[in-house]
Design goal:
Strand content: 15-25%
Distance between the termini: 60 Å
Shape: globular
CATH superfamily of one domain: P-loop containing nucleotide triphosphate hydrolases
Oligomer: single chain
Largest sheet: 6 strands, mixed
Length: about 700
């Protein structure tokens, strides 16, 4: 090590040692505070329960207020301790030295901020506006944007990267432009994990621009397999929550294709310090919200099996997701509105409650701007009010009539009974009239859709698929008084290529968010919709489309082999070389020994996260029966299965989407090209393509 480098290393080691001194002090302080707050909570509970053991209302009141406040304090302390413990392993990964107005300042950048009251924090959070200089800027005159949208210009004098493990500087180097390839290669050479990891140490310039884009944008990313598009979307969530917490807190929605994928990405936001206030749903579960009716529809895996193996099912599914279908549904709903039965004149005894002309005027003029359900409810309420008014007038007449009678004392009870009977008769008549207004009732969204479907497709609606559910939800949004679970401001949609035009119509109408991150890959479509997600998302305002062509998952060898199966000629970049994809042919009777040989070879290379990927459940069943006595096979064949960081996994193409493995064995029984591309690009380091003769 030369003298200058050694001096720099010693300076950095001294800074790191100082950070650890303060970190240890803060950890001890927070541990003591946690114990104090915990003791207060326990003691207050004991005293209060003892004092008010016989007064349930008082106990409930206590737990609703005082204890809630203390538990919030406890949770805040607990969150900060977790961050400190994370920082103890690797406090920071970057450093920038800037000059602003002649004053030099150094900033160290980490996963979390750490400030002990110095002029400059010991560590700044990677999401802080000034941290963008580490990801974006080359040396020289650069700028960054603060939340108020003001642009701040500075001179970037130095940009340094660190690899710190267990409190020690493993390596450090200065880089003039972006994150050094050597550093990135080291991060990408790691083995697969059961959870998607945060990428704060290796965020690239193009990724950082997406993460820090204006908060009121709809960002549509078409990214190749392994381009980090899911990670970028989740880091954008963390960035927006950090810089605009009051606006986005408890108003973030993440939609995932299935529960396995949802579990796979679940640790990213907590690793970035975001432990709550984000709502995650599978797309099916979210669409089903608010329909208030038990509907039986195909599970995700059954639906995907049908798409792969039933051509008629696939074609109908695709058509039901088109903008043309939207036009047909809109025409149907217009017909329903124009032909709704509003009834005739309504009478209560000899009095007119409301005329049919007035009902029509209310429906088609006064309440025209409201959805059908609200219009009908408003008219029903108007009619009920009129019925009640007439009923009350009849009751007053009866009461007044009996008041004017001169009744002997011995007949009072008799006439009271007569009066009550007359009043009861009036009330009964009013209730009968109200119950007879069955024509002023809107069919449920499902019933309306069933009527539409059976008329349009000229067949009975039986098992519902996801496209049916979307159309039922669309009808709900058009005709019902919509009850939204949250006022969402930010929506993230992953695997966007697998969703139809109608899906995006429903999401836009239901959420009405100001910010969207929609990520997908046209080349990973299992269903080739007439309108791609790139075209479908044109319905969103303030939209920006971004292509990501760098792969950080697979080696260049795997990438170059897999893109041969794409119908479009695209170039994909990867900074890692590796072994070529092994291609071989074998019959089913030889498959067992071939798989055993390949898995043993992967294990010798230190690859213990292995995916065997097949087309569908029928092939999966046959392969499982063949190899189950060789190894402990972890099946991923329904949404309740779990993906872990080590093991041999046997799964279908649709459950493998979004996941990654150290090594992959692709079983190709005359597969479609795009399905082969999806399977091959699950591999990080090694891939074997077996052309199988079933």
């Amino acid at each position: 090590m030369d003298k200058n480098l050694n001096e720099e290393y010693l300076k950095e080691k001294e800074y790191l040692d100082n950070v650890f001194i303060h970190l240890n002090n803060e950890i001890n302080n927070y541990l003591n505070r946690r114990k104090e707050v915990s003791d207060v909570i326990v003691e207050h509970r004991r005293k209060f329960v003892e004092e008010y053991r016989d007064d349930d209302d008082k106990v409930i009141e206590y737990f609703d207020h005082e204890n809630h406040k203390n538990e919030q304090i406890f949770n805040t302390i607990e969150k900060r301790i977790k961050e400190f413990l994370y920082l103890k392993k690797s406090p920071y990964f970057g450093k920038i030295n800037i000059c602003e107005d002649g004053v030099e300042e150094k900033f160290y950048i980490g996963a979390y901020g750490f400030d002990v009251g110095y002029d400059v924090p010991l560590i700044i959070d990677w999401r802080a506006p000034i941290a963008s200089l580490f990801y974006q800027g080359k040396l020289g005159r650069v700028s960054y944007i603060i939340p108020s949208k003001e642009e701040i210009f500075v001179e970037l004098l130095e940009r340094r990267q660190f690899l710190i493990k267990n409190g020690k500087i493993i390596s450090m180097f200065d880089s003039e432009i972006y994150v050094k390839d050597e550093f990135l290669k080291e991060m990408l050479s790691l083995k697969a994990s059961n959870k998607l990891k945060n990428i704060v140490q290796t965020i690239q310039s193009n990724q950082d621009k997406i993460i820090r884009a204006d908060k009121n944008k709809c960002i549509v990313i078409n990214g190749v397999a392994g381009s980090g598009k899911t990670s970028v979307a989740l880091h954008r969530v963390a960035y927006l929550l950090y810089n605009f917490r009051d606006y986005f807190k408890d108003r973030v929605l993440i939609l995932c294709p299935n529960k396995i994928f949802m579990e796979y990405i679940s640790s990213v936001l907590p690793s970035l310090g975001e432990y709550g206030g984000v709502y995650s749903f599978t797309s099916e579960d979210f669409i089903y919200l608010n329909l208030n009716q038990e509907l039986n529809f195909n599970s995700y895996d059954n639906h995907m099996e049908m798409m792969l193996n039933d051509f008629d099912y696939l074609e109908e599914f695709k058509f039901k997701g088109t903008s043309h279908m939207k036009e047909k549904i809109d025409d149907f709903l217009k017909y329903v509105e124009e032909n709704i039965n509003l009834g005739a004149d309504i009478y209560f005894r000899d009095k007119v409650v409301i005329t049919s002309d007035e009902i029509n005027r209310l429906f088609y003029e006064s309440f025209k701007s409201r959805v059908l359900e609200v219009r009908i409810n408003l008219i029903r309420k108007r009619i009920f009010d009129k019925i009640n008014k007439i009923r009350n007038s009849f009751v007053y007449e009866i009461v007044d009539k009996y008041k004017k009678m001169n009744i002997d004392d011995d007949m009072v009870n008799h006439y009271d009974m007569l009066k009550r009977n007359e009043i009861y008769e009036i009330i009964s008549e009013s209730l009968e009239i109200k119950s007879s207004l069955h024509f002023l009732k809107l069919e449920s969204p499902y019933e309306l859709y069933k009527e539409f479907y059976e008329d349009f497709f000229v067949k009975e609606l039986r098992d519902l698929d996801f496209a049916d559910l979307i159309l039922i939800k669309y009808i709900y949004l058009k005709v019902c008084n919509v009850k939204r679970i949250k006022d969402f401001k930010l929506v993230v949609i992953d695997e966007a290529q697998d969703f139809s035009y109608m899906f995006y119509e429903v999401i836009k109408e239901y959420t009405r968010a100001s910010s969207y991150v929609i990520v997908g890959d046209l080349n990973q479509s299992i269903v080739n919709f007439d309108e791609s997600f790139i075209e479908s998302t044109n319905i969103f305002e303030n939209r920006e489309e971004i292509n990501m062509r760098d792969s950080y998952r697979s080696t260049l060898n795997i990438i170059n082999y897999s893109i041969k199966y794409l119908h479009e000629n695209i170039s994909v970049n990867s900074i890692r070389d590796g072994e070529d994809v092994e291609v071989l042919e074998c019959g089913f009777k030889d498959l067992k020994s071939v798989i055993q040989n390949k898995i043993n070879g992967f294990n010798l290379k230190g690859n213990f996260n292995i995916g065997i990927i097949v087309r569908d459940k029928e092939v999966l069943r046959r392969v499982y029966d063949l190899i189950k006595d060789l190894y402990y096979i972890k099946l991923i064949n329904n949404e309740d299965n779990l993906y872990s960081d080590k093991g041999i996994f046997l799964t279908t193409v649709y459950f493998s989407k979004g996941l990654e493995f150290d090594s992959v064995i692709v079983l190709d029984n005359d597969l479609d090209d795009n399905i082969l591309y999806i399977m091959l690009t699950r591999a990080m380091h090694n891939a074997v393509h077996i052309k199988l003769k079933m």
